[in-house]
Design goal:
The termini are far apart. About 25% of the residues are buried. The longest helix has 15 residues, at about 35-45. The chain has helices spanning about 35-45, 65-80, 95-110, 120-130, 135-145, and strands spanning about 1-5, 10-15, 20-25, 50-55, 85-90, 115-120. The radius of gyration is 17 Å and the shape is globular. Helix 1 packs parallel to helix 2 (about 65-80) and helix 2 (about 65-80) packs across helix 3 (about 95-110). The chain has a single domain, classed as STAS domain (Transcription Regulator spoIIAA, 2-Layer Sandwich), CATH 3.30.750.24. Strand 2 (about 10-15) and strand 3 (about 20-25) form a beta hairpin. It has about 170 residues and is of the alpha/beta class. Strands 1-2-3-4-5-6 form a six-stranded mixed sheet, sandwiched between helices. It comes from Hymenobacter sedentarius. This is STAS/SEC14 domain-containing protein.
């Protein structure tokens, strides 16, 4: 079921799988990030979610101030949820957010009781979260009908920026 209660987030919930899928839906506008994060935590608490997918590919770079806020105010609530599995979908080119996530996890590691896995895109992560459930095709179709298809991971096609110097000079 698509949940439109948090304006900044694209959210899908499946009660039978105890699954919550989340993507950022406000582009580069991150002014209400903290409020949305609090609402997400409350939604996950109310639904007693055991499996969560956070597609970090859709999130803008998380500021240092928001990282500190997440560590102090959000992570303590997250680790109290009845989560069993969390997927973080993040492209290898999203280095800033990858480092932010890694530091939040490292800080909270003693309190994390759930399994965390990284995937480049959401769909393979959903397969893992759902244990390849036969419900997954319907969930993917519902998501596509509302939010459109997931963009493929094309990071392997991108080259590094060309050096702006001439070797040997």
């Amino acid at each position: 079921m698509i949940d439109n209660t948090i304006p900044d987030l694209s959210v899908q919930h499946d009660e039978a799988l105890s699954l919550l899928r989340v993507e950022w839906a406000s582009g580069e506008d991150i002014r209400t990030f903290r409020k949305s994060a609090e609402q997400l935590l409350e939604l996950a608490r109310r639904l007693e979610v055991r499996h969560m997918l956070l597609d970090m590919n859709s999130f803008p770079d998380i500021s240092v101030y928001d990282q500190v806020w997440l560590g102090i105010n959000w992570m303590p609530g997250l680790v109290k949820l009845p989560l069993e599995r969390v997927v973080l979908a993040i492209n290898r080119r999203r280095v800033h957010n990858q480092l932010a996530i890694d530091s939040l996890i490292a800080m909270s590691r003693p309190f994390i009781k759930f399994d965390i896995q990284y995937f480049l895109t959401a769909t393979p992560g959903l397969h893992w979260l759902c244990d390849f459930s036969d419900r997954l095709p319907a969930l993917l179709a519902e998501w596509r009908a509302v939010y459109g298809p997931e963009l493929p991971d094309t990071s392997h096609l991108l080259s590094e920026p060309e050096a702006l110097y001439l070797p040997g000079l």
